[in-house]
């Protein structure tokens, strides 16, 4: 069977639009994030780094791109519009899949003015778009990308995520069906499910709900962002441990806030025993203008149990 290659990156944090946001937009949780951006974050998250990362991704010509959230910073309507223009440069909706991050849901924003601007990149193959269209499923060859929304508006100083029982129930049924079809199931979610090293104010507050679904129904791989660090964790699965792979910010220069930008190139191949996922880790090099391979490893993944 032919392999499928997927580029995964996260936490783009595109620069704010020119000019100061309207005062009315800042009379909310946005104010704290705006102060943080002006004080330090604008020096860390650089558009030149994002452009270099995209050039590196294009040079490797993946079949598909997965982006696990935080395209923007303050959830301003102008940011959503600018991020849509940026997404168009990443690739057409059929070849790029997005799930939202906590900065994309910093405060409540009407769907049409906010996340709805990205809906073509954030909807299932056969499902209508909309704020309630999560989880969604996209099948590419023998790989199923399942997008879950963990991003919800929260109180000031919190960056927690939430799945909810309704979404968890839908996800369980979806994963069962995809497992019966023998597909390689990749779960895309912004917040990491594995809590090690994650503070309570940034964690998935109902992570146990999601881990229970994964442990029962199974997936083959989980991709996430949020922590601004590259990490490989292990989750409990119905037959064998499941790899959970996280990325540092796609726009980040190295700093005490997090690692330099990185992205992952995954090659998914069917084997006699199940699946093989070969991972290449690409990280911003010392020049700050290019990327270099800093790691390679292989994940051997058994075929799902019959459900």
TrEMBL record:
Q: Which residues form the Calcineurin-like phosphoesterase domain?
A: 5-229
Molecular-function GO terms, alphabetical = hydrolase activity; metal ion binding
An example of a Pfam family matching this protein is Metallophos
Superkingdom of source: Bacteria
What name does this protein carry? Answer: 3',5'-cyclic AMP phosphodiesterase CpdA
Q: Which family does it belong to?
A: Belongs to the cyclic nucleotide phosphodiesterase class-III family.
Q: Which residues form the signal peptide?
A: none
- The entry's keywords: Hydrolase, Iron, Metal-binding
